[in-house]
Write a structure and sequence with these properties.
single chain; mainly alpha; 2 domains; 58% helix; 0% strand; globular
Amino acid sequence: MTRPRLDRWFERLFDDPDPGRLGTGWVSGTASVFLGATALGGVVVLHFPELFSTARFRALYPVGLLRAALLAVIALGFVLGLASLWLRRRKVLGLTGCALSLTAVLLGGGQAGAGRAAGSGAPASATLGLDWFLLNLLLLALLFVPLERLFAKRPRQSPFRPEWTTDGVHFFVSHVLVQALSFLILLPATAVGRLVHPHALQELVRSQPALLQFLEVLVVADLAQYGIHRAFHRVSWLWPFHAVHHSSRDLDWLAGSRLHLLDAVSTRALVLVPLSLLGFAEGALHAYLVFVSFHAVFIHANVRFRLRALEPFLVTPRFHHWHHAAEEAARDRNFAVHLPWLDTCFGSRYLPPEAWPETYGLAGNPVPGDYLGQLVYPLPGRGGARA
């Protein structure tokens, strides 16, 4: 199997004969590079908020807390870089981490952009969601990387498994382009809203308790996702787009990000139509967005949690891993993203007692391993229809 060029570039730059073993400086060095790069990105956002921060989130941020957190990330990245320099024979990881942290400090650190006049710079319509990318990456990595190291279903699977850079690019693109993608995602709901005005129903929905609205959002959203997801599997010309997601041969917290843009945008846009028509309160929708941000990552994670008590009610990693399984018996099964009883109702549930899949991915590995290859794979003459 040929690894993507970006995988090989990182291997040449950072690899050594002892990667991952505690006491070699590899773990501290890798963490230092990650934290230093994240901090530098945060400094860039603070200097140019009108260009790199998501307009609708800007007023919601606790700026003082974020600046303090940025200083902590810079300091920790630098300290871990020093530890790597002390422990590791090859110094490139430690030097890179320290250099990134020092650059963040020289550019202003936690006080970057503090003296800028508000409202200067690019208009809100031109913003890129670098802030959304960095916050999600930092929080998800801090949560799931330790979980996958401590409770791994496949302990030999490295965080830097084949094609991890491809999934990283998917993660980056979907978050940084949040502003442009939001316009496309909102388009169907906006168009339908101009034709249908169920004001009485919307007032009734909004009058309900917040918790009940959240549960209803969960059911409505997953019913829509179930139908859309099943269509991507069954309709021949849609399948190549969704095949990109199923091309992962290793599942972990980053693998769930592998989604073709058309797949991701169309699914989110169509799910938003019933949610918008029913008129759920913003609080319930925001709670759902937070829930799905973590749950969708969790069900792809390389963790061995069985969670028997939850299996009838909530999609677990084992349930969704079978959706990605290469075994023929699991093909086109487990379409629900949150509520497994939907698959029971529609006859698509597959969950052998106690067992986990042996392998993941697609027969013959037809989908390219690099991001651009996956982007063009569904185009006519490139991606094949499903048999």
